[in-house]
Amino acid sequence: MSLIVREVWDYNLMEEISALMEASSKCDHCFVAMSTNFPSNIFTSKEGKEVSPYNLMKFNVEATCIIQLGLALCDANGKSFGVWEFNFKDFDERIHSHHINTIELLKDQEIYFDYNGVMGIDSLRFARLILKSGLLSNSRITWVMFHSDYDFGYFIKMLTGGEVLPLHQSVYVKHMIKFCDDGVYAGSELEIVAKTLGLDREVGRAGSESLLTLQTFMKLEQKYFNGRSLSEFEHVLHDFT
Known about the structure:
The chain has 241 residues and is α/β, with parallel strands linked by helices. It has a single domain (5-233), classed as 2-Layer Sandwich (Nucleotidyltransferase, domain 5). The chain has 9 helices and 6 strands. It has helices at residues 13-24, 53-63, 100-108, 113-119, 123-132, 149-159, 169-179, 190-196, 206-225; strands at residues 5-8, 30-37, 68-75, 80-87, 141-146, 184-187. It has a 6-stranded mixed sheet with strand order 1-4-3-2-5-6. A hairpin with a 4-residue loop joins β3 and β4 (80-87). It starts with a strand and ends in a 16-residue tail after the last helix.
């Protein structure tokens, strides 16, 4: 399936949120895949001490800024309703913590950080609009992610005010269930799984990754579950559970 990824910046944010809302209203039940780009991990441990996977994610998300967020929508039959790529202004490579190799890879994907700094979206403005959109806490929408610990970390960081994540993982999971009411399905190693299923798409930008996530999930469901319930995988996060 060949789709145009809709680039979203500060100047067209409200217009594209409206288009996203309209798209989600066209199906009885929507599947929404999310992917993010961020400056990679700063910490592998905290002050030389071993920490839990949740706390390691928490330290890294709080210390860094989101760069992109991709959303892809389809119905239960796999019919696509669009792909959106939100570009944020929060990250400044001159002052914010980052992993240099990750930033160079993103530049190779034609992500221009100076342009993002001028034309990008303030993540808190995005959060205010997405909270009002009807996409969250919606029983008609199922959220899908691969290797989702950091994706959800940045998403919840924005939705809860852009400061710190909950101290305890249990509270974090409650936030996840609150915002993504009808289900969260999360796996790992997207590209490997996709290629195994015969799917091939260049990834690197958040919009393309969210589309590949959605295509992979739908192919897995059709090929291996054949209508069986996926409830045993609901709210299961890679590395955390």
